Amino acid sequence: MKHIVVFSKGIEEDQAPIVRELIEKCQSVGIRVSFMKEVYDSVRRWMDLPASMTGIGASDLTGLKDIDFLFSLGGDGTLLEASMLTNDIPIVGINMGRLGFLSSIEKKYVSQTIDRLNSGDYTLEYRSLLHFQSNEGQFESYPYALNDMTIIKRDHSSMIVIHATLNGEFLNSYWADGIIVSTPTGSTGYNLSCGGPILLPTAEDFIITPIAPHNLSVRPIVVPDIAQLEFTIEGRAENFLCTLDSRYEVISPDCKITIRKAPHTIPLVRLPKITFTKTIRDKLQWGRDLRNYKPR
Questions:
Q1: In angstroms, rounded to a whole number, what is the distance separating the alpha carbons of residues 63 and 249?
Q2: What CATH code is carried by the domain that includes residue 179?
Q3: What angle, 0 to 180 degrees and rounded to 10, lies between the N-to-C axes of helices 110-119 and 16-28?
Q4: Are 34 and 100 in contact (CB under 8 A)?
Q5: CA–CA dist 191, 187 (Å, integer)
Q6: How far apart are CA 122 and CA 93, in angstroms?
Q7: How far apart are CA 259 and CA 190, in angstroms?
């Protein structure tokens, strides 16, 4: 390993020990460290950085061939944004947030992480993405989502009706506040909070989950990710909201949306013993008997 690049949505001064540990560890083993330009400018305000360290623009990232890993410092939202920067540089998610389903490596293990990456003691998980297309041209600059796509009503308007087809065959008309189409990666996000199932990251499926459906017999459904999904919307409002991960666009009742699997994947680094099943056991407290829990 010769070169890593650090990305974050915002590193504050109280996180200086983690940044300093990362830099010093890399220097001690001869690894070059660069920051994305916005992160570089932010860190320089409260930390002296080595003169050899530089800031890299998003457009430059794809042109550099010597980058081994992209470090995402933050929570799952930070890693989602990092995934938009590249589709071939493995992403290392250092959890500085709360849940950390995607950013599964705790910040206290920064030095150990460098050692494992340097020795090749890791695996790559290739995560699938959604590809979004509409007749109104939303999200044209980056029409992909690592987590999910949602169609939702705006504000406190009445529920909407979303007509869904699967490979050209009518599937259902969802009377609801909205709908989620989730990847396996996104199954532990909004999908999970709306009662959808958890999928293993390597599953080759999508999940369609209604948000607060009017008909309680309507349940989430898992479909193969080779399927093509199409959606149209009805409602009393003049427009609705559509999201791809953390981004959103306004759509009209005339919008026709097509969802299919993206032609590329995102490689995420997985360290030994930090498996997906262990992560969900720890984060969701599976198997823990709360009757024996004694607050301190």
A1: 29
A2: 2.60.200.30
A3: 30
A4: no
A5: 5
A6: 13
A7: 18
User: Could you list the residue range(s) of the whole structural domain that residue 221 is in?
Assistant: 129-263
Tokens of 248: 């959103």
Residue 27 sits in the same domain as residue 110: yes
225 is catalytic: no
6-31 exposure pattern, b = at least 16 Cβ within 10 A, e = fewer: bbbbebeeebeebbeebbebbeeeeb
Judge if pTM exceeds 0.85: yes
266 phi and psi angles, rounded to 5 deg: -115, 120
| Spatial CA neighbour of 103 closest among 129, 82, 85, 128 | 82
What is the number of domains present in the chain?
2
d(CA 120, CA 115): 9
At 71, phi and psi to the nearest 5?
-85, 125
107: three-class secondary structure by DSSP: helix
List, for residues 209-267, the tens digit of each pLDDT value. 999 999 989 999 999 999 999 999 999 888 999 999 989 999 999 999 999 999 999 99
Mean pLDDT, the chain, integer:
91
∠ CA 43-49-52, rounded to 5°: 125
CA distance 42 to 102: 24
Structure tokens at 106: 């705790």
Determine the Cα–Cα distance for residues 120 and 134; give it in Å rounded to an integer.
Answer: 42
pLDDT 10s digits, 45-59: 888 888 778 888 888
For the cut 70, the answer to whether the pLDDT of residue 295 exceeds it is no
Catalytic residue among 48, 76, 155, 254: 76
The domain that holds 61 is classified in CATH as: 3.40.50.10330
